[in-house]
Design brief:
By secondary structure, this protein is mainly α. It contains eleven helices and no strands. The radius of gyration is 19 Å and the shape is globular.
């Protein structure tokens, strides 16, 4: 029952394309994507290393103790992405398997990307306004990290946006959705709306708490005001990405986070 209800959700265009390929072809596509991201990361290795391990104002100043957790998180994200993108790609309902011509596909893709960009823009503006309101109440030990925005470039921001979206969707939201789907099998009338809502809310809460703990550890600042601020910002961003994924598509979620990261970085660079 729950599988049938899941098939009724909005099918992302990229997910629809994946369903037309075999597992071997999906593996090849995933390998190519990893190679492209790896090539970009290799080209940006100097900036990435500086951003992670250099002290202010160039980077956030992580120590060698953070290397193992970072590697573990990256491997976990890659593994989960491979699992959900290759093995567990949702099967499209018969109504969604209708062949579309090239112009129809491109038109729908443009609408999806524009929709995601608009939501990313609105989310970035909202989070920036929240920061302006909360700034007088945030500790200076955290605010001094605004200096690193001057050293970021477009490629590094884009990589951060893609990797953070991948981390949230593959490590937090999709595993939680799978778990909740199995738990809801015991209900007499499982609701797709309830499943989607619970998935977005719970995954957003988990991610926001994870982000608050990470920021507190990196900045060595355990302030209640800072934790509340990070939780609110992260919950808003995660909820937006989750809503876009389930009701618009994967492409909208990715482009929204890209626009969000670019806007927030630009505003921070200009006004801080």
């Amino acid at each position: 029952m729950i599988e049938k209800q899941q098939s009724k959700r909005q099918i992302p265009l990229f997910e629809a394309v994946l369903n037309n390929y075999s597992i071997l072809q999906r593996c090849l596509m995933f390998t190519c994507a990893i190679l492209v991201v790896g090539t970009l990361a290799f080209a940006e290795q100097t900036n990435i290393t500086s951003f992670l391990f250099s002290n202010l104002p160039m980077g956030i100043g992580l120590t060698n103790n953070f290397i193992a957790p970072l590697v573990a998180i990256v491997l976990l994200a890659v593994s989960c992405t491979a699992y959900f993108g290759i093995v567990c790609t949702d099967k499209i309902s018969s109504s969604s398997q209708q062949t579309k011509n090239g112009s129809g596909f491109l038109s729908e893709l443009r609408i999806t990307l524009v929709f995601g960009a608009c939501f990313g823009l609105l989310t970035g503006i909202l989070c920036s306004l929240i920061f302006v309101i909360a700034e007088p109440h945030l500790p200076q030990a955290f605010l001094q990290y605004h200096q690193i925005f001057s050293s970021l470039d477009l490629i590094l921001i884009a990589l951060t946006a893609v990797l953070s979206s991948t981390l949230y969707l593959s490590v937090f939201m999709l595993p939680l959705s799978s778990l909740l789907s199995k738990l809801m099998l015991f209900e007499n009338k499982p609701s797709q709306f309830k499943l989607t809502t619970n998935t977005i809310v719970i995954s957003s809460i988990i991610l926001s708490l994870f982000m608050a703990l990470s920021v507190a550890l990196v900045t060595s600042t355990f302030s209640i005001n800072l934790i509340i601020f990070i939780v609110i910002i992260s919950a808003i961003t995660a909820s937006t990405l989750g809503l876009l994924y389930w009701f618009v598509g994967l492409e909208a979620s990715l482009i929204a986070n890209l626009v969000y990261c670019l806007l927030v970085s630009y505003l921070a660079h200009i006004f801080l």
